[in-house]
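pls design
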C-alpha cells in the first residue's frame, strides 16, 4: 500500500475556457475574423484601412440599393413588405451564422426578445416606409440625429442632466434638421409631413433599442448572432400578422411578383450588404473604439447623401449644405462631449497666442 502511495503521480487537468460568446462576425481577440477573413495577420494601419473600406463599400451599396428599390414606379406604398423581406433574410443569415458558433443556446428570455423585436420593427419598418414620402438625403440627416430623442428620454424618464456641450450638440442638430426640412419642403413638390413623422418615430424606437439590447446582452451574456436570429425572426412574425390584418400582404406580393429582380433581387443584396456592413462596424469598434467608429460612419452617411444627389435626380438647394454642416457640428460636439479625455481642443488663449505670433512674424517679415 505504501509502495502504491509512493508511486502516485500528480495529474493536471486543464479545464477549457468558456465558449466564445462574442459575435461570430468577430472571433476571439487573438484571431480577429470578419466575414471569414482573418485580420490578425495584417498590421494595425492595414486593419484600419480594411475596416473603413468595408464600412464604406457595403453601406454605400446598401444605401444605393435601398433608394433604387423605392425609385421603382409603384413600389412606394410597400415599405412594410420590404421590411418583411429584409427581416426574413436577416433571420436566415443569423441562423446560418449561429451554426458556426460553439454555444448555440438561447440565453436571453423570450419576453425580452419580444420587446426588442417590437422596437426593431419600429426602427426599420418606419424608416423604410418613410422613404415613400421623403427624399433619401432627408432620411439620412434625420438618422444622424439620434442624440435628440436619447436626450429627451434621459431627461423625462431617468431625470438626467446634461452639460453645455451636449445641449449645444442637440440644439445644432435640431436647428439643422428644421433648416433641412424647410429647404426640402420648398424644393420638393410632393413633400409630405407624414414622412417626417414616420422617421421621427423610427428615431425614437432606435434610441430605445440600443439601451435594451445592451442591457440584455450584458445581463444574460447573449451573443450577437443569437440576438439577430431571434429578434428578427419574431419581428418577421409581427410584420406578417400586421400586413395580414391590414390586407397589405396580397397587393405587395402581386406587385413584387411582377418585378422579382427589382424587388426580391435588390432586397437580397440590400440585406446582405447591410449584414456585412455591421460586421465591419463591430470590428472597427473592437480594434479602434467607438469614437473612431462613429467618425467613420458619420463620414459614410455624408458620402451617401452626396452620392444620392449624383445617382438619383432630385431638386437641390444650397440650404441642404448649410443645414447639413450644422448637423455635422452637432455630431462633432456630441463625440467631443463623450471623449473629452481623448480629444484635446486648443483653448481660446492658445488660439489667441498663435494668432499673435503669426501676426508678429508677418510684421517682422514686412519690415
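designed seq:
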Amino acid at each position: 500500500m505504501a509502495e502504491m502511495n509512493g508511486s502516485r503521480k500528480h495529474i493536471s487537468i486543464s479545464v477549457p475556457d468558456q465558449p466564445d460568446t462574442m459575435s461570430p462576425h468577430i472571433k476571439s481577440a487573438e484571431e480577429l475574423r470578419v466575414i471569414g477573413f482573418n485580420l490578425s495577420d495584417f498590421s494595425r494601419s492595414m486593419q484600419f484601412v480594411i475596416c473603413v473600406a468595408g464600412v464604406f463599400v457595403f453601406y454605400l451599396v446598401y444605401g444605393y440599393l435601398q433608394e433604387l428599390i423605392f425609385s421603382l414606379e409603384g413600389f412606394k406604398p410597400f415599405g412594410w413588405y420590404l421590411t418583411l423581406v429584409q427581416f426574413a433574410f436577416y433571420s436566415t443569415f443569423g441562423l446560418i451564422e449561429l451554426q458556426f458558433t460553439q454555444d448555440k443556446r438561447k440565453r436571453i428570455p423570450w419576453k425580452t426578445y419580444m420587446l426588442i423585436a417590437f422596437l426593431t420593427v419600429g426602427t426599420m419598418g418606419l424608416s423604410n416606409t418613410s422613404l415613400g414620402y421623403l427624399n433619401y438625403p432627408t432620411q439620412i440627416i434625420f438618422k444622424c440625429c439620434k442624440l435628440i430623442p436619447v436626450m429627451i428620454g434621459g431627461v423625462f424618464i431617468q431625470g438626467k442632466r446634461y452639460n453645455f456641450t451636449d445641449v449645444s450638440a442637440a440644439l445644432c442638430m435640431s436647428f439643422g434638421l428644421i433648416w433641412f426640412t424647410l429647404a426640402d419642403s420648398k424644393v420638393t413638390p410632393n413633400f409630405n409631413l407624414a414622412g417626417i413623422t414616420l422617421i421621427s418615430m423610427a428615431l425614437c424606437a432606435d434610441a430605445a433599442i440600443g439601451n435594451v439590447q445592451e442591457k440584455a446582452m450584458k445581463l444574460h451574456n447573449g451573443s450577437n448572432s443569437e440576438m439577430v436570429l431571434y429578434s428578427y425572426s419574431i419581428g418577421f412574425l409581427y410584420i406578417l400578422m400586421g400586413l395580414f390584418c391590414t390586407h397589405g400582404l396580397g397587393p405587395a406580393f402581386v406587385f413584387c411578383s411582377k418585378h422579382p429582380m427589382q424587388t426580391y433581387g435588390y432586397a437580397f443584396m440590400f440585406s446582405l450588404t447591410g449584414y456585412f456592413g455591421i460586421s465591419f462596424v463591430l470590428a472597427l469598434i473592437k480594434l479602434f473604439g467607438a469614437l473612431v467608429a462613429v467618425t467613420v460612419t458619420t463620414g459614410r452617411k455624408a458620402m451617401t447623401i452626396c452620392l444620392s444627389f449624383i445617382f438619383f435626380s432630385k431638386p437641390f438647394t444650397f440650404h441642404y449644405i448649410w443645414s447639413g454642416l450644422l448637423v455635422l457640428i452637432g455630431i462633432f460636439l456630441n463625440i467631443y462631449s463623450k471623449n473629452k479625455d481623448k480629444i484635446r481642443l486648443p483653448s481660446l488663449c492658445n488660439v489667441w497666442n498663435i494668432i499673435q505670433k503669426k501676426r508678429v512674424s508677418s510684421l517682422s517679415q514686412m519690415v
